[in-house]
Amino acid sequence: MKKILLLSVSLFSIAVLSGQNLQLHYDFTDANSENIKGRNYMTATFEMFKPDSVGSTFWFIDIDFSGPHSEPALAYVEFMRDLKFWDFPVALHAEYNGGLIHNIDNSNFGSPLEHIGIVGPSAAFSFASIGFSTYAGYRFGHKPEEGPDFQWTFTWFKNLADNKISLTGFFDIWTQDDYNAPAQPDGKKLVIITEPQIWYNIAPWLSAGGEIEISHNFIPGSKKLELFPTLGAKYTF
Fold it and tell me: In the record, which residues are listed under signal peptide (predicted)?
C-alpha cells in the first residue's frame, strides 16, 4: 500500500505540485497460511508526496486495526527524501522505516519495530506510456551485530481506459539477518515482497479496487510464498 503516489505524481504532471490520498483496505487471510491466523482486519494508509526545487519528499503510514476489539494494533511509517542538484537523471535517495506493534501473541504488551535506514541512488523513467521508478541502496538497522544489507525497490504505474483504470504496484527485495534462535543470527536471508494494485476510478477523487500482497521470507516464521488479497477504497485530495 505504499510508494505508488510517489511514482504517479513524479512521472505524470497531475496539475498539482503535491498530492495525497487516504486508503482503507480489508485484509483477507491466506487460506494456505500457517503463520497468520485471523488476518481479517482493516488497514488504513495515508500517503503524501511533495516535490520542490531540489528533489521531493514522500511518506506514508499504515495502521492495522488488528487488535482483539478491532482497535489499532500496528503502525508502520516510511519517510523518503530524494535530492537532485544536477541535470543527470539520477537522484540521491534517503529513507527511514519504523513503527510500533501492540498485542503481540494476544498479550497486552507492545514493542517498537526495528528502525531501518536506506541510502543510495534513485531514478524515474517511462516506457510505452508506463511509468517506472527505482532505487537501490545500503540498508542498515540499529542492531550493531547485524552485518551490511542491501535493498532494491521497483515501482510501476499505468492508466487504462481513458484513465478509468489504474494499475500500480511495487517490488521490494532485500537481505537481512535470519534469526532461527532469539540470541544470534544464523546467516542472511533474502526477503521478497510485491503488492500489485488495481483501481477503478469512479471519480478523480474516489477509487475502488484492491491489491494482493505476495511475499517470501517476509512473514515471521514463514519460508513459503504467502498471498494476502485486499479490497479497498481510495480518496485522493
Answer: 1-18
